[in-house]
Design brief:
mainly alpha, two-stranded antiparallel ribbon, Fic-like fold, single chain
Length: 249
């Protein structure tokens, strides 16, 4: 299906148009998973007008968070040759929380690891010192696997994501940072980006939770493949539907 997707969707759109299409969808859904109420149309308007656009009923915080996500996405795409290391990780997190971190966590430092234990929803993470200490090894082992090419890129992307969210090393932006870096892995392997839709948030969170409750990431790997297939099928079906011959009058 990936080959058909490239042939029917990516190539005819052209690099610039497809990148903007992906940036808007990915940003909308990735921020939406974290609670943003932006629709795809809201996201497109903000993308086109930047912070000159303030949709009715949306907070300035939401607008700034989305604008930061755009900037991080574009930085990442322009630096796909960057080593997959702690420096990359900290840069992505710093950029994605640039205008919102001090509002949410006044004592936090942009792009730096947490200095307190973390919790999210009903999950209490482990002792932060031990978790943060494992981050360099995660980045190095993932980089090594990227070079060796023994795992399917989607499997590697999912496994990295599961391990990273388990470590949860930053005060804020762990989800957005993890999803961006999962796509960094896919893009380095010339694979389509993964867009996890906010409507699938509960299934996604459940798949992440099984890493802790069952000690396996097989559910997350399966979810990544399912989400990728869903996105490609939707785009292909939409293009076929909108290519029908119209009869005027």
């Amino acid at each position: 299906m990936a080959a058909t997707y490239y042939e029917k969707i990516v190539l005819p759109m052209g690099k610039k148009e497809f990148r903007e299409y992906s940036e808007i969808l990915f940003s909308c859904h990735s921020c939406g998973i974290e609670g943003s109420s932006f629709s795809v149309d809201d996201t497109r308007c903000l993308f086109e007008e930047q912070l000159g656009y303030h949709p009715v009923g949306k907070s300035l915080l939401e607008c700034q968070e989305m604008a930061d996500h755009f900037a991080t996405y574009e930085w990442m795409h322009n630096h796909l040759d960057h080593p997959f290391d702690v420096g990359l990780l900290k840069t992505i997190n710093r950029l994605v929380t640039l205008r919102t971190l001090t509002y949410k966590q006044a004592d936090a430092v942009l792009g730096e690891f947490t200095t307190v234990d973390m919790a999210a929803g009903d999950t209490v993470f482990g002792e932060h010192e031990g978790l943060v200490a494992q981050v360099p090894r995660l980045m190095a082992s993932t980089a090594e696997m990227m070079e060796r090419g023994e795992l399917h890129p989607m499997v590697l992307s999912a496994r990295f994501h599961g391990f990273f969210e388990y470590l949860h090393p930053f005060r804020d932006g762990n989800g957005r940072t993890g999803r961006l870096l999962s796509n960094f892995i896919l893009l380095r392997h010339n694979c389509p980006e993964l867009i996890i839709q906010k409507e699938d948030r509960q299934e996604y969170i459940t798949a992440l939770r099984t890493i802790r409750t069952e000690g396996t990431d097989e559910h997350l790997v399966a979810f990544f493949f399912k989400a990728a297939t869903k996105q490609m099928e939707f785009s292909l079906e939409q293009k076929m539907h909108n290519s029908r011959k119209m009869f005027f009058f």
